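Morning run. Coffee first, then this:
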Amino acid sequence: MPEIDFSKEEKAILVRKLQVCCTAELKQDIGQFDAEFLLDFISRELGSYYYNHGLYDAQAALTDKLDDIQDSIYQLEQPTDFTR
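And here it is:
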């Protein structure tokens, strides 16, 4: 999996969300450095699982659309004496 690089602004938003979550859910204040470390850890160690799940979802959506296209093409087929 290619490494995902967030822009400075995106990373700041994600770090802030981690800080808010830790404060609200864990009653634990964490500084920016710790939140950045946690974000990097999550990205490195868990990111592949989310990435792969997204790929599987995209593949399933594409398969559904291709099935719809195949059905549409079949409906356009004209009767002939040929058999498949």
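The mean pLDDT is 93. Good start to the day.
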